[in-house]
């Protein structure tokens, strides 16, 4: 717990800096700025004039003026104004605030009243072609860069704010990046682009990459935005201290991705509906005037992976107070990511698996995980694809014993194996899932019998687990492959992950020598439970039991009460025991004074878990839940 508290405190200190920055920065004004007002919805090029100014002209003028500028809107007419672009807008290379809230008639409830539409660009060029400056880019609607394409040092779009702009029918909605890509695949390195804010904007049908793509950014703030019918919605790469909050996303391969190099960032208070219903799409389309979606069908359909996806190399990030619904794979997925991420106080529902992690030192705490089609929370080792291309692959692909794909015309051997150790699954409420409440996958083994990845020292404590179809806690050695498709435009690329296959209760063994998930830690055996109510009204619960495990080790025995056998609806206390040379901790006893409002009258059963305690007092591997025994008393 010392490591957990230290980690939380460290990240909290960093996140508080982000939060204070976001509150302070949004809406800030600058002295001595130039203001350019867009007066029409044309796509005219050139320089802005007070009487006649297009958005393209306003961006040109702001780029030419060193220092922060403001672009406002005053287009005649009360209707929503759409700027139909024929070519990509110039990259934003100097700090500017593009403020769609200044357009007369703007109403936050109905979304932006001014927007840009890139359908003509996509129709003419597809995605991933050559942009105006000869640089291969993904035709973003808004391109915010640290340095101009001509690499003039000193030009820097840090501090740019985008407010209440509708961005529709582009390859990428808004691309925020620090380095400029050059022909031939090389790039210009630069310091991170800093302090970019995107707020109250609407992103629709961004089809090739993400609606908002952040690369090499520092302290970016994305707040109160709306997303629908995009390929991906929010993507962070090599970014630090970023905030994504109070936004809504319907559809997309992933609602939010923390990718390689992203650290100390936070996603909070967002609503991600991965597979929206027809009615949800229609209601959204009516509210935000998207006639193409009024029928309730999204145009972009993918084998969607997850609501929140934390990938390889993303560490020390937090996802909290989000609602994630209806992912066909994982609601929240830590897929071979970096270490020390925190997933807490989220609602994850109606997905295949609620929360899945193959990382180390992850904290999964205080979440509500319910009504998922398999396990509520899954901890497992994982094969992580290094990336490959299979234009002829079918669903699912043919594999050898090591998971290599064989039907691409050649064998691909490009999987990494990730262990999952040291995670803390604490204080979650897990119920009405169609698999186990918590399942911990075992050891991944290659075809030659070599142990490749393990799942050990994962602590499962104080979780409320009930009304699931599987065990409350299931430790297993079996794993199955789960396949998905990534649509890359040219064909299909496959990824394969290991999802634990529940195998039922694992029997205890003498001295706990068996290996597997959490070392298949033996569970306690409860022998007697007595509830006593004295004449003075004092109530006492006495629990007795035994444990056989590894010799000369300390274990924490956590006790739970529940209405039904095999569940853990309420944590009622714990004791620590030490085993002797035979591995026995005989006749342990917990005697606890209780009040009836603490132990409900309906809770007739008690069960327990055993968790190994390390030399420094840290909690390590937790067992499955013991057999429940009934409360006996007066």
Descriptive report:
By secondary structure, the chain is mainly beta. Helices cover 8% and strands 38% of the residues. The longest helix has 24 residues, at 2-25.
Count the domains. 3
CATH architecture of the largest domain: 3 Solenoid
CATH fold assignment of the largest domain: Pectate Lyase C-like
| Averaged pLDDT | 81
- Helix content estimate: under 10%
Q: How many distinct helices?
A: 4
What is the molecular shape?
elongated
Profile the largest sheet.
13 strands, parallel
The main sheet orders its strands as 1-2-4-7-13-17-20-23-26-29-32-37-42
The residue ranges in which pLDDT falls below 50 over 5 or more consecutive positions are: 14-31, 130-136, 148-154, 180-189, 384-396, 407-416, 445-452, 480-498
What fraction of residues sit in β-strands? 35-45%
Structural class: mainly beta
Overall radius of gyration: 28 Å
CATH class designation of the largest domain: Mainly Beta
Distance between the termini: 38 Å
Number of strands: 55
């Amino acid at each position: 717990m010392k490591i957990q508290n230290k980690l939380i405190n460290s990240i909290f200190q960093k996140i508080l800096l982000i939060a204070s920055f976001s509150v302070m920065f949004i809406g800030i004004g600058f002295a001595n700025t130039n203001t350019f007002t867009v007066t029409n919805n044309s796509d005219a090029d050139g320089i802005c004039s007070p009487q006649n100014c297009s958005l393209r002209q306003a961006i040109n003028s702001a780029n030419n003026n060193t220092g922060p500028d403001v672009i406002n809107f005053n287009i005649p007419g009360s209707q929503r104004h759409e700027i139909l672009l024929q070519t990509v807008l110039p990259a934003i290379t100097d700090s500017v605030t593009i403020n769609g809230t200044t357009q007369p008639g703007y109403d936050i409830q109905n979304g932006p009243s001014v927007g840009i539409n890139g359908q003509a660009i996509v129709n003419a060029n597809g995605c991933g072609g050559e942009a105006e400056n000869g640089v291969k880019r993904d035709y973003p609607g808004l391109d915010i860069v640290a340095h101009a394409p001509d690499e003039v040092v000193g030009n820097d779009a840090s501090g740019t704010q985008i407010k209440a702009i509708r961005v529709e029918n582009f390859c990428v909605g808004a691309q925020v990046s620090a380095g400029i890509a050059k022909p031939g695949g090389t790039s210009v390195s630069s310091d991170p682009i800093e302090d970019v804010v995107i707020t109250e904007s609407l992103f629709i049908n961004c089809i090739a990459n993400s609606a908002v793509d952040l690369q090499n950014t520092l302290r970016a703030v994305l707040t109160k935005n709306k997303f629908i019918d995009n390929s991906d919605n929010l993507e962070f790469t090599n970014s630090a201290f970023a905030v994504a909050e109070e936004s809504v996303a319907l559809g997309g391969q992933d609602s939010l991705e923390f990718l390689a190099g992203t650290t100390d960032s936070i996603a909070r208070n967002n609503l991600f509906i991965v597979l929206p219903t027809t009615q949800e799409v229609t209601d959204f389309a009516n509210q935000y005037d998207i006639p193409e979606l009024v029928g309730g069908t999204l145009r972009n359909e993918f084998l969607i992976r997850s609501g929140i996806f934390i990938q390889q190399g993303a560490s020390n990030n937090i996802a909290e107070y989000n609602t994630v619904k209806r992912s066909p794979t994982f609601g929240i997925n830590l897929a071979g990511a970096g270490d020390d991420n925190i997933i807490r106080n989220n609602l994850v529902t109606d997905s295949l698996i609620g929360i899945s992690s193959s990382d180390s030192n992850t904290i999964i705490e205080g979440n509500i995980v319910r009504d998922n089609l398999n396990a509520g929370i899954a901890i497992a080792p994982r094969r992580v694809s290094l990336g490959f291309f299979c234009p002829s692959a079918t669903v699912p692909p043919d594999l050898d014993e090591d998971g290599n794909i064989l039907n691409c015309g050649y064998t691909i051997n490009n999987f990494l194996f990730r262990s999952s150790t040291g995670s803390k699954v604490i204080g979650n409420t897990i119920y009405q899932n169609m698999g186990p409440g918590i399942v911990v996958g075992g050891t991944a083994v290659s075809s030659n019998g070599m142990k490749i990845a393990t799942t050990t020292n994962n602590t499962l404590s104080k979780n409320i687990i009930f009304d699931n179809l599987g065990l409350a806690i299931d430790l297993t050695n079996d794993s199955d492959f789960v396949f998905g498709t990534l649509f890359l435009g040219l064909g299909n690329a496959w990824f394969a992950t290991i999802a634990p296959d529940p195998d039922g209760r694992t029997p205890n063994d003498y001295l706990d020598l068996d290996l597997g998930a959490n070392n298949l830690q033996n569970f306690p055996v409860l022998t007697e439970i007595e509830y006593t109510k004295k004449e003075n009204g004092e109530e006492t619960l006495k629990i007795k039991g035994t444990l056989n495990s590894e010799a000369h080790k300390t274990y924490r025995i956590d006790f739970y009460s529940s209405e039904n056998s095999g569940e853990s609806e309420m944590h009622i206390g714990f004791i620590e025991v030490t085993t002797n040379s035979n591995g026995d901790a005989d006749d342990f006893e917990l005697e606890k004074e209780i009040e009836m409002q603490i132990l409900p009258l309906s809770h007739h059963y008690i069960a327990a878990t055993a968790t190994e305690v390390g030399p420094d007092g840290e909690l390590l591997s937790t067992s499955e839940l013991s057999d429940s025994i009934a409360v006996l008393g007066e």
